[in-house]
């Protein structure tokens, strides 16, 4: 069965300080298998079959198109984002093209709108709690922790990190795509931001470190793309804030490409925590993406030889 299924709470109730809080329109979308019409990242998909499902339902998840024989990825967008806009669609489509994943995307767009960044930061805790409920729902239907990964961009990376706060056992793997830095670095306690303690395996991609993204040494393995701060293809964006935003979103596009290939272009060489190369360590290089070993530790520098663009408006 090839389907794109909408898992939606029109009203989500979560326990909060001995009362209940209503969170409107938190959606989970499932793409169960590669669409036959998908030929390029971001390309047209065949017509989608969508269905709203409450995770409190006892109807088996396989009836929604979930394949228990595939791995699972949960993708979470960041501030002012949505699961239906680039570059998050690039990431979703990359996993779909692989054909070995059930692809879930969390859409918290309605409570992550510009210009309310402070509100969005506060809402990450609630989204994480609801996503933990969804994760439990998924595992109750037979999904295993070892075959489930959470991939989050910006504030979405911190949401991935907070999921384990609401579980009896922490999740197996998290991939943080340039985890958000503004205000989080100053006011976000350890329990509310992504760290290597949030999963058994935490890989982090840095494309705007120190500005919109966190500085390295967040996860077990951190990858600095082109120095980790400003990306070459973004320097033509004019104003520095647009260069930073462009670079921030490049993490999703880089990782989408890396999901589909083990190309040498995504090979990282061990480097310092400030993303400076160390000569003579090329033999210890690792590939960034699906082929990154769980045992990888430290900071790696990835020098992209080709110019990539990544829509971000």
Strand content: 15-25%
Q: What is the alpha-carbon Rg in Å?
A: 18 Å
**Mind describing the biggest β-sheet?**
11 strands, mixed
The CATH class designation is: Alpha Beta
What is the arithmetic mean of pLDDT?
83
CATH topology (fold) name = Rossmann fold
Tally of individual helices: 5
Could you give the order of the helices and strands?
Answer: EEEHEHEHEHEEHEEE
How many domain units?
A: 1
The CATH homologous superfamily is named Alpha/Beta hydrolase fold, catalytic domain
Description:
The protein is of the alpha/beta class and 313 residues long. It has one domain: 3-Layer(aba) Sandwich (Rossmann fold). Helices cover 22% and strands 25% of the residues. The protein has 5 helices and 11 strands. It has helices at 88-98, 117-140, 155-163, 184-187, 240-260, and strands at residues 4-16, 19-31, 71-76, 101-107, 148-153, 171-177, 199-206, 221-225, 267-271, 286-287, 298-302. An 11-stranded mixed β-sheet has the order 1-2-4-3-5-6-7-8-11-9-10. α1 (88-98) packs parallel to α5 (240-260). The two termini are 34 Å apart. The model is unreliable at 1-22 and 33-51 (pLDDT under 50).
Give a nutshell description of this structure:
The protein has 313 residues and is of the alpha/beta class.
Key attributes of the depicted protein:
single chain, alpha/beta, 313 residues, 25% strand, Rossmann fold, eleven-stranded mixed sheet, 22% helix
Topology at a glance:
Elements: E1 4-16, E2 19-31, E3 71-76, H1 88-98, E4 101-107, H2 117-140, E5 148-153, H3 155-163, E6 171-177, H4 184-187, E7 199-206, E8 221-225, H5 240-260, E9 267-271, E10 286-287, E11 298-302
Parallel strand pairs: 3-4, 3-5, 5-6, 6-7, 7-8, 8-11
Antiparallel strand pairs: 1-2, 2-4, 9-10, 9-11
């Amino acid at each position: 069965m090839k389907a794109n299924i909408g898992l939606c709470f029109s009203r989500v109730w979560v326990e909060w300080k001995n009362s209940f809080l209503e969170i409107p329109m938190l959606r989970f979308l499932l793409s169960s298998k590669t669409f036959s019409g998908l030929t390029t990242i971001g390309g047209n998909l065949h017509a989608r079959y969508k269905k709203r499902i409450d995770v409190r339902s006892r109807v088996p998840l396989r009836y929604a198109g979930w394949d228990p024989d595939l791995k699972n990825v949960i993708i979470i967008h960041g501030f002012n984002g949505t699961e239906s806009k680039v570059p998050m669609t690039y990431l979703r489509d990359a996993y779909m093209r692989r054909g070995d994943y059930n692809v879930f995307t969390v859409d918290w767009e309605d409570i992550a709108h510009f210009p309310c960044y402070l509100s969005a930061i506060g809402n990450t805790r609630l989204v994480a709690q609801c996503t933990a409920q969804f994760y439990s729902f998924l595992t109750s239907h037979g999904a295993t922790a070892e075959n489930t990964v959470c991939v989050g961009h910006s504030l979405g990376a911190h949401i991935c990190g907070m999921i384990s706060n609401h579980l009896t056992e922490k999740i197996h793997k998290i991939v943080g795509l340039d985890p958000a830095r503004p205000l989080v670095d100053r006011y976000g306690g350890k329990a509310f931001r992504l760290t290597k303690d949030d999963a058994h395996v935490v890989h982090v991609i840095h494309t705007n470190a120190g500005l919109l993204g966190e500085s390295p040494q967040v996860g077990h393995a951190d990858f600095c793309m082109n120095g980790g701060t400003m990306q070459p293809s973004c320097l033509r964006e004019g104003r520095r804030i647009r260069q930073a935003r462009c670079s921030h979103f490049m993490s999703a596009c880089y990782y989408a490409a890396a999901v589909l290939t083990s190309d040498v272009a995504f090979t990282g060489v061990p480097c310092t925590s400030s993303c400076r190369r160390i000569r003579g360590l090329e033999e210890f290089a690792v590939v960034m993406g699906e082929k990154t070993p769980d045992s990888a530790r430290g900071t790696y520098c990835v020098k992209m030889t080709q110019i990539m663009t990544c829509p971000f408006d």
